[in-house]
Amino acid sequence: MLTPCTPEIDDWQGASTGIEVRPVLLLMAYECMPDAECEAYAGWERVLQAAREFEVHAIVSAESFAAVERHGYVGTIPGIHFHTPQLDPLYRLLQRAPNLFAHNNIAYYYWQHLAYRLARELHRRFCFSLVHQINLSTFRAPGYTWQLGIPYV
User: Fold this and answer.
1) Strand partners, 135
2) Under 8 Å between Cβ of 112 and 143
């Protein structure tokens, strides 16, 4: 587990320096698309709303990242940074496995593993205050980012 590097709440409000520092939030949003319906659009709106109060880093699926990029939003919305894990051959193989649900659960669980590795790297660089699993999470598969050692919602 990573050591937390969460700043004190007084530092966020600028009590010690006079400069307000926005807390840095990590959002896990597998589905996050500005032009989609239901789950993917809800993910998009949650990212936008979180950016009103936080500096936001969102880890999204490759499909979501492509949709955000297609609309020209990568790097253009103040306070929002989109990331996607590097997909490896095993993930692509798992994606082709037959599935009974809307999503291929085996491939999704493996994506969560890849996303956690990316989250660890990003946490070392940006010192997240909190991680929030936005969508496609169940009590059976909450992801792995709870292991970052910071508050997990």
Assistant:
1) 29
2) yes
d(CA 38, CA 85): 23
Per-residue pLDDT tens over the stretch 15-53: 566 677 899 999 999 999 999 988 999 999 999 999 999
Contact 119, 59 (CB under 8 A): yes
Residue 65 near residue 118 (C-beta atoms within 8 A): no
Least Cα distance to 65 among 24, 103, 115, 25 occurs for 115
**Which residues are within 8 A (CB) of 124 and not within 5 positions of it... i.e. 6 or more apart?**
2
Give pLDDT tens digits for 98-151: 765 556 788 888 999 999 999 999 999 999 999 999 988 776 778 899 999 999
Task: Compute the chain's Rg from CA coordinates.
Answer: 16
**One-letter amino acid of 121:** E
